[in-house]
Write a structure and sequence with these properties.
This protein is an alpha/beta fold and 154 residues long. The chain contains 4 helices and 7 strands. It has 2 domains: 30 residues; 123 residues, Glutaredoxin (3-Layer(aba) Sandwich), CATH 3.40.30.10.
Length: 154
């Protein structure tokens, strides 16, 4: 009986190590987002939840000087929303859907500073019931040369 136990113990042990490695690998590949927000902003919290459900690892810094944060990250008043995030070197302003952020990170356009959903679009992630699709607004890419273009239309 002992030889049979040894034969099955090694494969089981190796399988357990493989599964443990898979879960560690998945958590290590989560994209980190640093979100700056005002302490009282509830829609920002809902957007953070949207990102987390889509696999982002989110850190939050409460700020009372959001206009300074936006200016430091190249967000003009025309492009501004309620919260500002940094993800993999890009600026994400406002209620940009996680899918658009993932597309940006996949394409990695060198001339783009970031994406914005200017204002607070009512049918954007964080501004409507969770799980509903974005609707009725544009996500704008803003570039190093100061120009903008529509990145996604909803």
């Amino acid at each position: 009986m002992k030889p049979i136990i040894k034969v099955f113990t090694i494969p089981l042990f190796m399988a357990a190590l493989w599964f443990a490695g898979c879960s560690t690998e998945n958590s290590a590949t989560a994209t980190e987002a640093m979100v700056y927000k005002a302490p009282s902003c509830a829609c920002c919290d809902a957007w953070i939840t949207h990102l987390e459900k889509d696999g982002f690892k989110v850190k939050t810094e409460m700020r009372n000087d959001m206009n300074n944060i936006k200016a430091a990250h190249g967000v003009t008043p025309k492009l501004a929303s309620c919260h500002t995030a940094k993800i993999d070197g890009y600026v994400i302003e406002g209620h940009v859907p996680a899918a658009d952020i993932k597309r940006l990170l996949k394409e990695k356009p060198a001339d783009v500073v970031g994406l914005t959903a200017p204002g607070m679009p009512m049918k954007s992630p964080g501004m409507q019931a969770e799980g509903l699709p974005p609707k009725g607004y544009d996500v704008i890419a803003f570039k190093k040369d100061g120009s903008t273009e529509v990145f996604a239309h909803y």
